[in-house]
Amino acid sequence: MINVATRINPASASAVPQLLTRLAGRHLIGDALVRPALDLTLDVLDPATAQVIASAPAGTSEDVALAVDAADKAYPGWAETPARERGRLVAEAARRIAAASEIIANVLALESGKALRTECRGEIATAVDILTLYAGLASELKGETLPFHPSVLSFTTREPLGVVAAILPWNVPLVLMMLKIAPALVAGNTVVVKASEEAPFATIEAARLMADVLPAGVLNVICGTGRDCGMPLVEHPRVAKVTFTGSQAVGEAIYQAAARKIIPVSLELGGKSPMIIYPDAELAQAVAGAVAGMRFTRQGQSCTAASRIYVHARCFDAFVSNLRDAVATLKIGDPLDEATDIGTVVSQRQKAKIEAYIAEGERTPGATVLRAGTLPSAAHLKDGLFLQPTIITGLPDASPLMREEIFGPIVCIQSWEDEDDVMARANDSDFGLAATVWTRDLRTALKATRHLDAGYVQVNQNLTIQPNLSYGGFKKSGLGKEASLEAMLEHFTRKKTVVIDMR
Ligand code: NAD
């Protein structure tokens, strides 16, 4: 076993263990770090070494009640705070997080297994960017005047909803938290976040820094399992809205529970996003786009991962071989090491699930499974949850590998010749989160963007969620949009119509 502090850059080496000791076993409720009511905890493992890094609170309905009470008590004062003042406080919170970004990035790398250099630092920068975006949109919480009658004044106002529950997954917890809490808070709601029990500490620390700036109870974070903490939060009678990112199965359960209360829900669920490469595409650019789009540096643990690639038959062999060469240059290793490009997957459960899909690929007649890159050999990483990026070709379109979200470093590549046929194959999915098209012809690109049944369609690039670009899936990928002004207005306010007879 190797001491964690020796793996961390000297500038953060003592601060990270100290921070974990401070956060261990505690929720953020009101403006304090508090032990769970039943004093239950869950171990959080470092996926690179399988060692426990600290225990997270295992929240129950008792903690949910305390957190919702704190948020409910803070709500009237926060809702009455002028919108631009709320925005100013959120902007100040963003500055506090930016100032602590290196320590939070190390904590995130340690608990999630994502590489510090290629993933965690960028995630915090994006999280800060999202807070800054919404802080500046505070004055856009506007209503309209309605031309009803010359002697009647008719207008609409935007009001906050009340206490918002935000339930998070582990894969990009800081970005996903900010996509929910920044618009919710700026619009005047108070929030209870349910952090992922698998990677909670970066979330709690970022929220703690924000809570130092915000009035007590405006932002609370609790942690625990979905069953014991997440569902009681959704079902709490004073929760007025639920915003969730996670799996389709849990999204369905939350939607049903919210239906019983008739409250609004936003759902960001899974994906199986197609990438279509036309014969005129710039091949090197498309290969780089596939490396980025598959989020190989995040072990493919991305809802928008370009996990189904359709390459025109004319460039199929060159594309597959160049992609394998490109992925092989990525260094798999200790997430905390500056030289590492790819860290681990998050849990043994995820690793076993991904390996079962690879075995299914190997069993499939006609399929070829190519592994790229070298697994680390350092003794302290021997129990780490590392996987090689894996390319699978020759699968039938009906294969579970082509239809189900794997959430791991597996990309399935198929060849095509007929444009209508490839569009139909790309759209033949329960999901509709994202899609990309690679061509040098603008007419081809525009035609493809019209036909693709996905909420986030890009041409000749494969970016992640970008602040200010409306983001959200079609079909079973979810309900609602995030990352934009529209997301704040449509999903975190309610519209009131006021009509005043002046005759
Ligand atoms: P998950 O659905 O298992 O868990 C997500 C969160 O929900 C966790 O906090 C969990 O504790 C909680 N939860 C679980 N059961 C619950 C219940 N019955 N009631 C209330 N809360 C419950 O997902 P995960 O494994 O943490 O994350 C991976 C999934 O997230 C993938 O399917 C991925 O596609 C999805 N995801 C989607 C997006 C997007 O923007 N569309 C982004 C990231 C991840």
Describe this structure in words.
With 503 residues, the chain is of the alpha/beta class. Helix 5 (101-112) crosses helix 6 and helix 6 runs parallel beside helix 7 (173-186). The mean pLDDT is 97. The radius of gyration is 23 Å and the shape is globular. It contains 17 helices and 21 strands. A seven-stranded mixed β-sheet has the order 13-14-15-12-11-17-18, with helices on both faces. The chain has a six-stranded mixed β-sheet with strand order 8-7-6-9-10-20, sandwiched between helices. A two-stranded antiparallel ribbon has the order 1-2. The protein has two domains: 5-269 and 478-496, Aldehyde Dehydrogenase, Chain A, domain 1 (3-Layer(aba) Sandwich), CATH 3.40.605.10; 274-467, Aldehyde Dehydrogenase, Chain A, domain 2 (3-Layer(aba) Sandwich). The longest helix is centred in the N-terminal third of the chain and has 21 residues, at 116-136. Nicotinamide-adenine-dinucleotide binds at residues 167-172, 176, 194, 196-197, 225-227, 230-231, 234, 245-247, 250, 253-254, 268-271, 303, 405, 407, 433, 473, 478.
